[in-house]
Amino acid sequence: MQRWRRPALGGREAHVAARGAAAVSATAAGVTPCPVCFFLSEHGELCSVCRQPDRQRELICVVEEAGDVLAIERTGEFRGLYHVLGAALAPLEGIGPNEIHTQELLDRVASQGVEEVILATDSDLEGEATANYLLRRLEGTNAQVSRLAHGLP
């Protein structure tokens, strides 16, 4: 029986790998959540979306993760702002209302003249529970709350 052996990294390959690892580490060290929407930003500054003056500031799309912002931005259709929760409610995993950015969302809606909140959480059990929870929490505000459609038309 012959065993498979990994090829060893030579001097040049090891140097390139080390430089790549250092670059990734340095980049990751500077990435922090945006202080307003919790999307990705550099060194605690406003994110690239919040800095854009032509955004519709009265419209907030609530998503679970930063990757969801990227997916929506790729469409080029949404011109509002975002609010990244950081996760969906998942009590069995220890993620409750205090672990997602609910209060920050409520504060933004109350203080920034938000007219509409679009709940764009996933269509799985946790995403639906999170959307229902946020809907109840947003009931006392002046903002209209809507939910992204799921499924086939």
How are the elements arranged and paired?
Elements (H helix, E strand, L loop, with lengths): L10 H20 E3 L6 E3 L13 E8 L2 H10 L4 E5 L17 H10 L4 E4 L5 H14 L5 E4 L6
Parallel strand pairs: 3-4, 3-5, 5-6
Antiparallel strand pairs: 1-2
Query: What is the strand arrangement across the widest sheet?
Result: 4-3-5-6
Mean of residue pLDDT values: 85
Share of β-strand residues: 15-25%
How many helical elements?
A: 4
Question: Could you give the distance between the termini?
Answer: 57 Å
User: Structural class of the secondary structure composition?
Assistant: alpha/beta
Which word captures the global form? Answer: globular
* Element-level helix/strand string: HEEEHEHEHE
Helix content: 25-40%
The beta-strand count equals 6
Largest sheet: 4 strands, parallel
Uncertain runs are 3-12, 14-18
Radius of gyration: 20 Å
